[in-house]
Amino acid sequence: MNDFQNTLHFARSQDASDPLRAFRDEFHFPLKDGQPVIYFTGNSLGLQPKGAAAALKQELDDWATLGVEGHMKAKHPWYSYHEELTAMTARLVGAKESEVVVMNQLTSNLHFLLVSFYQPKGSRKKILTEQRPFPSDTYAFASQIAFHGGDPDTDLIEVQPRAGEYTVRSEDIIGRINDLGDELALVCFGGVNFYTGQAFDMAAITKAAHAVGAYAGYDLAHAAGNLFLKLHEWNVDFAAWCTYKYLNSGPGSVGGAFVHEALHGKGLPIFAGWWGHDKHERFKMERTFKPMNTAEAWQVSNAPVFSMAVHRTALEQFDRAGIVNLRMKSERLTGYLAFVIGEAARSAGAHLEIITPSDIAQRGCQLSIVAHGKGKDLFHAISAKGVVADWREPNVIRVAPVPMYNSFEDVWRFGQIFKAALS
Predict the structure, then answer these.
(1) Is 225 left (phi over 0), alpha (psi -120 to 50) or beta?
(2) Is position 411 within any domain?
(3) Between β-strands 35-36 and 387-388, what pairing exists: parallel, antiparallel or unpaired?
(4) What range does the domain containing 290 cover?
(5) Smallest Cα–Cα separation from 264: which of 253, 273, 248, 276?
(6) Are residues 258 and 167 part of one domain?
(7) Half-sphere exposure for 379 (CA within 13 Å, toward CB)
């Protein structure tokens, strides 16, 4: 039983006792009518850290004053820039430092990893994913299947929710893995489904995939910086993520990747590039590729320093806050949001559903709302009052109170606006 109260006094008391409250002041909030908006779309694009401009200016200044010598002489030498991000990234996703690398962008990383982890042979050629993953994942899976001469219509399998349900039960995922058995080459889910906000049991899915001889990988676009991840402990084979959502690193910013240490140096097929070559011999410019014995072997190009500069600023914030602390706040903040949405619906006599699981183990900070009979008019009404959320066809409003910068007062004020819009 929660102790929530739908009052401004309660919300402010929660904020006063929040040990993470100071982080809110480290971000720029867009304004509407001169006032900060209620920004609930960090699941799409995170807010800008105030330190981002100085971090980017540092690299611009070093470029201006050092030119090419910035690769070795910049304040943060460009040649090894990605290495400054490794330890913080490992802590964020529950990995060893050798298992993570910051590189490229999400879907390109997914493709590079699929080169290694989707190798159909004989009857083992199917990929299993959730119903309606983010479309870029579907395109990547289908194109990889076609590239290997398969048929995406038969080799790409989506686990469906049961009739009348919105989300997929864990036991149904495990059952489907077992049913496919030796036909299954790869299981690849989103850590959190972008549409419903459902967080999947990655440990259980990975164990089941391995039991039938398949690899297990994840798109963590909506999980990195949102969930408390333990990729190494869960024996996940690989993962990829973006950094512009919960990781607040700017539009189109650099991505990240994970490969479990048990798979390093095992001769997996790889699309090679010079930045994956042994860094101690990289500038010998030799003809034969000698991969590094870490996740860095999957790198192909040198660091995109400008986007990494902003990402470093964001990672430093996560390091100071601590992902465990952020997750603890998130569970309570999102629980409060579910509470005030329910209060608003009852007060207005509205028929709506939160289709995101109520079990905190099966969700991050996003709640997906279906407001029956209201549709997009409701979304436009709350937007007009300064709520920045997003709409996903055909009928879902997604709201995400991000623990790094959102407050309990944000949630309470959202509830007041939502109730008025419903009425």
Answers:
(1) left
(2) yes
(3) unpaired
(4) 56-321
(5) 276
(6) yes
(7) 21
Q: Which of 321, 344, 366 is the last residue of a domain?
A: 321
Q: Based on the domain organization, do 294 and 343 belong to the same domain? A: no
Residue 50 maps to a domain: no
Same domain, 185 and 306: yes
- Does residue 62 fall inside a structural domain? yes
Helices 170-180 and 202-211, packing angle to 10 deg: 10
E strand spans, 191-349:
215-219, 238-241, 255-259
Residues 163, 268: Cα–Cα separation, whole Å = 40
Q: Hey, is 156 helix, strand or coil?
A: strand
CA dist., res. 92 & res. 335, Å (int): 23
Question: How far apart, in Å, are the Cα atoms of 205 and each of 3, 120, 387?
Answer: 34, 20, 36
Give the Cα separation of 188 and 191 in Å (integer).
9
Element (H, E) at 179: helix 170-180
Taking the chain (423 residues) in consecutive chunks of 10 residues, what is each chunk's mean pLDDT? Answer: 92 98 98 96 98 98 98 96 97 98 97 98 97 94 98 97 96 98 98 97 98 98 98 98 98 98 96 94 91 96 96 98 98 98 93 95 97 88 97 93 98 97 92
Q: How many CB atoms lie within 10 A of CB 20?
A: 20
Question: CA-to-CA distance for 340 and 421, rounded, in angstroms?
Answer: 14
CB 402 within 8 A of CB 42: yes
Question: pTM score > 0.85 for this model?
Answer: yes
Number of domains in the chain: 2
Residue 32 C-alpha from the chain's centroid:
28
Among 107, 144, 106, 108, residue whose Cα is nearest residue 126: 144
Q: Which residue has the tokens 């990494």?
A: 308
Look up residue 54 and give its two tokens. Answer: 């100085």
CA dist., res. 50 & res. 291, Å (int): 38
